[in-house]
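PROTEIN FOLDING TASK:
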Amino acid sequence: MASTKPKVALLKIETVYGTDAVPTPAANAILIRDEIRAPQLEVFYANRNNARGHYGRGEQIVAGSKINVGFDIELAGSGTAGVAPGWGPSVRACAMAEKLLATAHAGTAVAGSASGITLAVGASAVDQAYRPLRIRLTGGTGSGQTRVITGYVGATKVATVTPAWTTPPDATTAYSIDAQAAYSPVSASLESATCYFYYAGFVHKLLGARGDLSWKFPRMDIPLLSIELQGLYGGIVDDTYPAVTLGGFKDPLAVNNANTSLVSVHGHAAKLYNLEGRLGNQVTYRNIPGAEDILINNREPAGSVEFEAPTIATKDFPALARAGTLGQVSLTHGTVVGNKVAVDGILSQLTNYREGNQDGTATLQFDTLWKPTEAGNDEMILYAL
């Protein structure tokens, strides 16, 4: 009898779509939670449905097959800022691009504007070098603000930020673009992965795997990534569970007052009960003459948030909901550089206003729609800091 308790997942980004990247236990293991969605072999059939001189049905012809698998991953850093966390490849398989800044860039601004900052002379001369990284104002005018860089012109050193500054920086402003790993959506040149999933005495092999992701930061619990993958059938065979190396995974921290900071809902420092979101990829299996693949043809990011209800004088959230106002929903979690994670929805709309109750405390509950800037591919960004 095979037990369903042991579970091992290996995942590696493919060089050629649908070609086995051969993930190894030493280099490509993922630390997954025990609460998985069991692997599913999904077979597609075409009915023959031919007429006969008697009752009865005809057989079905196999038209294609794929494997689906889902798992949760604890959200924590890699241990070193600017180094990809162990969950990075799983996110990349969900149409997210990885940008690594191994060494921080800090300096004093040459100038500032309502939605921009001119970086120091030593900043990169490469266009979009700092998109979509976070920038902090560390001194001088506007100190204490954190924004997302949504555009950068290397020739002028001008970084555009979203949302606009509350207090625009000037030539006295010190800043830092810290070492970090950033993951933002893409609409072209999507990566794919090979996933080996060991479960119930079998190894299920997914090729050309792509999928969707969601995340949640529940109060007094561990923040999680949820990954749902679909892959071309690469085989299901008997196998033993390999010993794995999990160097890219660090111990997570519970979501609480000590560990979770910079919770901002449209500029309001929220007392948070829950924050979650989903990239909302539209994932499709395709099998036609000339192509068998997993496609992602659109996404519709959305989520929800619940926090202690402020007074109207403090923040008029009913008015924001009625006006359809766009604003930032942002969270930073962790206490030590190298083991911090963050999420930014830079243009988020609060919808479906509801008044709630948590332990006798009045709360506000919203659904959230996450919109990109005009530049695109920046509506939802995950960070390891």
